[in-house]
Amino acid sequence: MSYSVGQVSAFAGVTVRTLHHYDRAGLLSPSGRSGAGYRLYDDTDLARLQQILFYRELGFSLDEIAKILKDPQANALDQLRARLRQLSEEIGRLQRLAEVAEQAIEVQQTGVELTPEERFDVFGEIGFDLSYATEAQLKWQDSPGQKESMARAAAHTKEDWRQLMGEAAAWRGELLAAFDEGEPADGERATDLAEEHRLHIARWFTTCPPDMHRRIADDFAADPRAFALVVPPSRQRPGLAAYLRKAVHANAARRAHHEEHG
């Protein structure tokens, strides 16, 4: 039985233009022609079209499909195995993107509605880089501390945010003064400021033992987006993030020494 290009288009779910393209590409040429010269497809052609559409659905290019159909026994299995690996990787990537989207939604839910004016009043110049926040969420998502931090942040009221950001601003001023005055990062003044920062995190977000504080400070030194959460770019100095990291590590060592020696 023969079928016109319009009939094949209708029951195969592809456009006439696509069928013409497959013909020009030598991928699917109809077996017959009508008396008027129109394309006619038989059952063998339809079976071949079904194969083409199957491989297209899997993401193969037309050139790859042509190679497979030229010698199915020699090419199909290896091609399918390779495509399976690619699809598995793509599934993993999409799952990670879905996780990022979910975490982004959670990060945005601070539990308090703020107008743009109120947000500037509370947060000042401190920016919120969603790309960093979502990456951090994924990085620490299995950490009980991260879960506690998100839950407590979501529960903060506007006045809570105003108070904690006020504390952070005062601490930031002290840090900048210590840095500008040349205080050593491992000296008492800088390490006291590092301890104050650790306690601030514990007071407002989550328990922050020294090892966690070291990891946070490592992020500050490695990623400008992380450091911008504590010191806005307009107030940063070259070397300040590394200075804070050194102070945090020195404070952690100081605390470990005190605990070891009573």
Please give a structural write-up.
The protein is an all-alpha fold and 262 residues long. It has 13 helices and three strands, in the order E-H-H-E-E-H-H-H-H-H-H-H-H-H-H-H. The chain has helices at 5-12, 16-24, 43-57, 62-70, 72-108, 116-123, 130-140, 144-155, 158-180, 188-204, 210-222, 224-227, 240-260; strands spanning 3-4, 32-33, 39-41. It has a three-stranded antiparallel sheet. A hairpin with a 5-residue loop joins strand 2 (32-33) and strand 3 (39-41). Helix 9 runs antiparallel to helix 10. The longest helix is centred in the middle third of the chain and has 37 residues, at 72-108. It is rod-shaped and about 95 Å long. It starts with a strand and ends with a helix. The mean pLDDT is 81.
Keywords for this structure?
mainly alpha, 71% helix, 262 residues, 13 helices
* Low-pLDDT runs: none
Largest sheet: 3 strands, antiparallel
Helix content: over 70%
Q: What proportion of the residues form beta strands (DSSP E)?
A: under 5%
Write the layout of secondary structure elements.
Elements (H helix, E strand, L loop, with lengths): L2 E2 H8 L3 H9 L7 E2 L5 E3 L1 H15 L4 H9 L1 H37 L7 H8 L6 H11 L3 H12 L2 H23 L7 H17 L5 H13 L1 H4 L12 H21 L2
Antiparallel strand pairs: 1-3, 2-3
Helix pairs in contact: 4-5, 5-7, 9-10, 10-13, 11-13
